[in-house]
Specification:
By secondary structure, the protein is an alpha/beta fold. It is built from 10 helices and 12 strands. The strands form 2 sheets. The chain has a 7-stranded mixed sheet. Strands 8-9-10-11-12 form a 5-stranded mixed sheet, covered by helices on one side.
Amino acid sequence: MPDLGLENVTPNIFTTTKLRGCNPSFVTTSDGVVVIDTPQLPTRAVAMRAEAEARGTLRYLINTEHHVDHIFGNYWFKGVPVVEHQGLYDNFMVVTPDLDPFAYALEAVPTDDPDAASIVPDRETYYADPNKGTIVFTGDLTLRVGDHTFNVLHTPGHTPGQVAVHVPEERAVFTGDTIFSECQTWLMTSNVDQWLEALERIRQLDVDHLIPGHGPVTTLKYVDTQRAMLLDWKSAVADAVARGWTREETIARVRFDERYPVDVGQGYMMDHIQTLNAASLWDKFTALGYAKGR
């Protein structure tokens, strides 16, 4: 069984920040285990399930967003009720003109998980039952499992169906990619204004532990750092548009690669992230007719 690099955030919270992909986690309760996101790498998904099941019956699997690094491992958690926001469910492993999530997930197998080749299904088999949501909701949702409460809060911005999972008994919140801790932020097709509002919602929680979508476990203070990163990207690209820079000029000149490293296993993606972030904001700002000073 591969080493997941699990760490105890609290006596009942287990997470790993050492894998390529998101920070998959689980919480133990008096009546079973709740999993939050699944490893992108197949053998790690199998190992994570084994680690969680060793501590109790798997009661729920909550996904925080539809990006492939948070949901691809669901396939190896079949039989567990999957909790997803409607906005996540509607986008689960959907192929778009810009991304084939199945192909993207498999890109990591040869380099990061070569032993997974024998357990990865073909595309048709995978899509026949990828293990998407069985409990689908809009707004917020509260789950009670044994002696623990799981407040699943709709925090759109990074994605439309983004959620945070607040566990008050552990004084902890799992933010998904609303927080990228000490690593590069992926804007992708995000709505930055909504994202900023989501950060303010998280800021209001009474917690000691913040488990981000990527990067080291941190505290509520990191909300300010993430907010600053979003505002810096927004301001820099808005200024580029106001100066009349073309899309290509903006991509070439607006970069924040010196601010943070990329997350685990993504060393070759720095240029891609900078290009994607600058281009996506330039497209939004020019489409909306953003004026100088916005």
